[in-house]
Every structure is written in C-alpha cells, then in structure tokens.
Amino acid sequence: MRLINLAGRVALERDGLAVDVEQTSNGRFSAQFQDVLDRWEEFREWANELGEVEGHAFDPTELQAPVGTPRQIFAIGLNYRSHAEETGVDIPDTPMVFTKFVSSITGPYTDITMPPGSVDWEVELVAVIGRRAERVPRSQAWGHVAGLTAGQDLSERDLQVKPPAPQQFSLAKSHPGFAPLGPALVTPEEFCNPDDLEVSCSIGDEQVQLGRTGDLIFSVPTLVSYLSEILPLLPGDVIFTGTPSGIGFALNPPRYLAPGDELQTTVEGIGTMRHRMIAAEAPR
C-alpha cells in the first residue's frame, strides 16, 4: 500500500492514480493523515479489503509530506559504518539519538530557503510509527511501523559545531524545510526486503551519496526496539535512520549546497524527491 498526502488530503496511490480516503470510505476516515495513523489497524484492514475503485490523476507538485502531526521526531547519527569512518568518529555501540523539530517538515517537491552558513545534505530512510510501541522486542518491531518514506536530514554545519556546546544538532537541523519527506509512505510488505533498500542523493546530475540500508549499524527493528525501551513511540512519530557516506562536510575541501542547486533524494521502492535551494532575501 502506498499512501500520499495530496494537497492536505490522505489518499491511496494505485497505479499512479489517487484514491481519496475520506470520499472512498464515505467519511469513515477523515481527510487528515493523522486520523489514518491513529487508527492504523482499522484503516489497514479497510484498505486491504477495498476492491477496485476509481482513482484520478494528480499533479505531483501538490504532494505534501506523507505524515500526520508527529509528536516526536527521532534522528539517528552515525548509523552507517562508512559515515562514521568518513567523519573520523568511533563506531557507536548504541544508537546516537537527536531530534529535528516538527516545523522543519516539508513536502517532496518544494523550494527550500537556505539560512546563512554551510548547508549540507544527508539522504535517509525514514520510518513512521503506526501502532504505539512500548518495550517492543526486535522480532515484533516491524508490526509497529506503518510505513517507510524518503527523507533528507539537511544540516547547517556552522551552527551545529558552534561553541560553547560541543554540538547543536537539533537546532542546526531544524530550519524551515530541513526535513523533507516523501513522495509516498509505503507499507513494509510492499518491499521484497524492507531491511535492504538502496538510498541515493544527487545534486543536479552528480551523484554524491549511494548506500543500502542493509549496511545500517542499527536497523529499523533495532531502533524501534531500542527507543521503545526508553519511551513510548506514538502513532505518527517519525524516525530518521541515518545517512551513508558522501556528505559535504567530510569532503576535502568541504562542499555545501548553493542557491540554485537541485537536490534529488531517492529511496528504492518509494520514489524521488526534488528540492531547489534558494537564497534567503536580504534583510531590509
């Protein structure tokens, strides 16, 4: 099952066409994405029993982030061995967790205004929770995941390393538009192997990142289990799972995004996001 957020209305995507959930369910489910996630088991049963229905063509530029109103966003640092090695940091033995604030979420095809500083890219697989998770064993973790989507953990590196604190991860990664998500939320059974998906990132025609989630140090089930041992994961919560090597900060010399760059983010089986970086207006 593929779910999309079409101009603020949750829809099923079938063969490239949109099936409006509120209309097709005769109001059983609202148009709000969060309503579907809060009632995930009920919705999933309804959607799986839905027969042939008429869909309609849609403009991809109307797609918004395929999430509801997450109460918690988790992000995992240094979760690919290659990324830890390129940054010169020891391989972690437990997940390194920070947050991105909810106001940073944007859709899959938007312009992103760049703040002053050094803006870096980080392609990521993102998991969205569909069922409350507390102390969940790793073997049962996929049952609490509604679906997977593509994400970018955009980062402003100057603020991230600004003294006096050794790292300002959450603020540096939470400028408006710094958490693009999309283009669809895809349920785990749609993948041949949801634990091993190709992820890639390009700037224009130049590929700058390429990896597979099979190389994650801490897999999606491991992250769900680990986090749920500490606090409850709630329907709609978002987990950015980490980025492979190839970030601009680790290059010699470092390279960062510039106004006019088109950033393309692709995850196998989910699709490609495209974002144009634009300069902020000069203060008056």
From TrEMBL:
GO terms for molecular function: hydrolase activity; isomerase activity; metal ion binding. Keywords: Hydrolase, Metal-binding. InterPro entries: FAH (IPR051121), Fumarylacetoacetase-like_C (IPR011234), Fumarylacetoacetase_C_sf (IPR036663). GO terms for biological process: carboxylic acid metabolic process. Belongs to the FAH family. PANTHER family: FUMARYLACETOACETATE HYDROLASE DOMAIN-CONTAINING PROTEIN 2A, FUMARYLACETOACETATE HYDROLASE DOMAIN-CONTAINING PROTEIN 2A-RELATED. This is Fumarylacetoacetate hydrolase. It comes from Mycolicibacterium insubricum.
